[in-house]
Specification:
CATH superfamily of the largest domain: Zn peptidases
CATH class of the largest domain: Alpha Beta
Radius of gyration: 26 Å
Number of helices: 14
Number of strands: 18
Strand content: 15-25%
Shape: elongated
Distance between the termini: 26 Å
CATH architecture of the largest domain: 3-Layer(aba) Sandwich
Largest sheet: 10 strands, mixed
Structural class: alpha/beta
Bound molecules: zinc ion
Amino acid sequence: MQRLTRLTGTIGAALLLSACATTPSPPPSPSLDTIEAELAMDIATLADDDFGGRFPGSEGEAKTQAWLAQRFGQIGLEPGAADGDWTQDFALVRRSPATEPGRVAASATRGERRVAFSQPMLGAFSAQDEANFSDVPLVGVDPDLEELVPGSLVNRALVLPASAIAKRANQLEAAEPTVLVITTEDQKTYDQSSRFFSRSRWRLENDREGMALIMISPEDSAALMETIGRNADRAPDGHGVVAYDTMLDARISQQSERIETANFIARLPGTVDGAGAVLVLAHWDHLGDECGPPDAADRLCNGAVDNASGIAVMAQAVELAAADGPFDRDVIVLGTSAEEMGLLGAEAFVADPAVPLPTIVAGLNIDTVAIAPRGEPVVILGAGETPLDYGITEVARTLGREVVPSDLQAAFLRRQDGWVFLREGVPTVMAGGTLADEEVFQAFLQGPYHGADDEVGEGLELGGAAEDAVLHAALIRYFASLRTYPGGGN
Ligand SMILES: [Zn+2]
């Protein structure tokens, strides 16, 4: 997996160190019944219709942020973002691809010959609203090339038939073409691809990386290949790239929407300078008020399980742990925004972290917890990827819970905020009972998940959530203490 190499070297050493430490027995804590009742109250508040489905930038966000500041302030935490704020503000943008004549124009020139593309045409540039390209060399790639060579298409415009997109999609980011020119062989292909590329996604406004895309009609595709002529049959270079001796000019002007949102960050300061930090995170955002078909009576995405339950469990765990604090290490609480839009709050945090990422010795993500009943074992999503497995196994054992493997890791590791941190080399897992019973988990995914039915009611199972709150309180104590977890940190 990409960029995980930084982790592996430290695993052995950390395992050795933590193996020498003894695990403290957890101090007496409130009964699971009491914890369930408190979780139910917090979830009921966050998943109330009044919070509007907690969509980033909405009034529901303002209410959620106020709730988080009050809840964690009461627990005794201090604001953890820059300048003594509770929030790390950032902006999201969504750009609509340009399709109208005034918004997209492109042409290809070879010597004296020039072909100006006409409608229909689609132009998109993920990094900015406006884009202007002139004299970018058009190139092709050897269709038999297994994998595009990283960096081989910098400052090039790659001509790629729509039929080859599926094969190359995952290779393009590393190959870094400046522009992707997609040719289409018939109108049906154009229409299908057009629908696909018109689905625009939210991204961080500060994210300036991206490539431009120009998709041209079947007629223009034929004209382009005629212009390129016999250059298309040239032998590829050592990177499988064929130079067409043809230049591209293109102009794209997109309309965009913008959202201002924020991550919530709180801190329980540690007592030992330079000991590092434990990060606990859960996403506070959800899908707003557009769940289900437009004519449905209830379209509000209350997100009781996803992820009011994760926020409630995080608050409960930090409250239980903080009663025994402060610890050697800082405890950082992160309520991420825009998880549902593609883990964007987590991306915003790692791009501008409140604490240096290498000082985070353990990251614990909590997502979608109010599903499993009491008595489930613990699954570690991210097992084998960090030095944390040993400690989690020991801590779970003191609570009478066993850590078990799961077949779901491959499918879900990259679908949660912890992945963004893991990818950056921060040892981060999602541990708990949610994935322990695959049937229960799949029933949620096929049922209320991302629908108007994910709301407070009979479906909300808090037994496992209460146990996971106790587990996370114990994990915070364990990883925040130099005695029990000397590994990691400075
Ligand atoms: Zn979700």
